[in-house]
Amino acid sequence: MSQSVCILGVTGSIGQSTLKILEQHPEEYSVFAVTAHSRIVELVEICKQYRPKVVVVPAYKVDELQQFLARENLNDIEILQGEAGLIEVASLPEVDVVMAAIVGAAGLLPTLAAVKAGKRVLLANKEALVMSGDLMMQAVHDYKATLLPVDSEHNAIFQCLPEGYFQAERNGQPKMGVSRVLLTASGGPFLNHTLEQLEMVTPAQACKHPKWSMGQKISVDSATLMNKGLELIEACHLFAISEHFVTVVVHPQSIIHSMVQYVDGSTLAQMGNPDMCTPIAHALAWPKRIQTHVPPLDLFTHTHLNFQEPDTTRFPALKLARQAMQAGGLAPAILNAANEIAVAAFLNNQIGFTQIPNIVEATLNQLENNAADSVEVILQADCSARSIAQQLVMS
Ligand code: NDP
Ligand code: MG
Questions:
Q1: How far apart are CA 348 and CA 48, in angstroms?
Q2: Most exposed: 100, 138, 221, 262, by fewest CB within 10 Å?
Q3: Closest listed ligand to the CA of 152
Q4: Number of domains in the chain
Q5: Domain end call among 95, 116, 149
Q6: For this chain's UniProt record, which GO biological process terms are given (predicted)?
Q7: Which residues line ligand 1 (CB under 6 A)?
Q8: Has residue 170 got a pLDDT over 90?
Q9: How far apart are CA 258 and CA 160, in angstroms?
Q10: Of the residues 149, 166, 186, the one at which a domain ends
Q11: Which atom of ligand 1 is nearest to the CA of 151?
Q12: What is the arithmetic mean of pLDDT over 129-149?
């Protein structure tokens, strides 16, 4: 039977790649609901092509969307609005699969709603898991949801782990013969920049990733290595291991997407051309495999695969994220919120590139770290961190 899909963040880079995969498999999947935030014209095009039953936009965009849809004779599409609308579509009984591809903290409540509705959740929105780690993973267990990693590294690790790994005890220790996770990082566009050069980089340069084409926020995160920091936290929660079992390896070619080491000396790697359609298709069809347009890897054109240690002096964001994971509690949510504000300020030309980690660190130092035992407490910390980071941007 065909699976009915809800795409949260359909107008984004992951949303578009998801549509590409679904389009290739019309018998297996149908688009039931989609959500957008600012790109209404693109959303209307998506509605014309995929005919979803429900769409969600912010309240102030509803009139504009209604007019566009009426012009296209698409009045039968139901429009829901705002955060309540996002939470509703993520948990509709008609929906089987939810692609969580909203960027940032805005995705937390809808992703959690999908988990609590016991859906098959394809997780791209790493910030949601970084903020709510234990709470989200507990909800996956309690509500019998299936949480599948879309982030290419985590999808790679998932593919390299032994079968049944997720049924094993969650105690921070690797198990079933696993000894370590190697999380690969491309190093971003400024891998070989000096500190002086880093001070001068522009938003346009930061958004031009050498290997992946992505949304603006994750592109800047890749350039600061905060993306790898968020992914370190993401890996600890997904795979129930403490941070000292995760080694970050810079691998500029982005051919190996991550690795798992075993106690017998084996290292398993997942490889492929860098295209998000592969992990999306894997998460969508798991445990089956489905066709994508991604060409198979031609190893004769990739004769050199390089590996190096990350430099946390030039890229302190990675160190900050590791420390936040060690500290636990609200620290990852504070780190994430401060980073979102600092990245937005950098994209707005209000601060320089090297100020991003400084603002994150100063925000972490200013806020008290408590237990992250409810969504309300997490959202409160997110809010306080945003206001402190905003003040730091202005000062
Ligand atoms: P984009 O910026 O391209 O897309 C973000 C999506 O979220 C858009 O649909 C956008 O709507 C929507 N959105 C933005 N703000 C809000 C908000 N406040 N409320 C509701 N919806 C909102 O991002 P990406 O697709 O690159 O990334 C999405 C997520 O996936 C991120 O968490 C990222 O870290 C993760 N990811 C992305 C990868 C990639 O290759 N792009 C790889 C691995 C993970 P609109 O466009 O209409 O404004
Ligand atoms: Mg990634």
A1: 33
A2: 138
A3: 2
A4: 2
A5: 149
A6: isopentenyl diphosphate biosynthetic process, methylerythritol 4-phosphate pathway involved in terpenoid biosynthetic process
A7: 9-15, 36-39, 101-103, 106, 124-127, 151, 212, 214-218, 276
A8: no
A9: 9
A10: 149
A11: 43
A12: 97
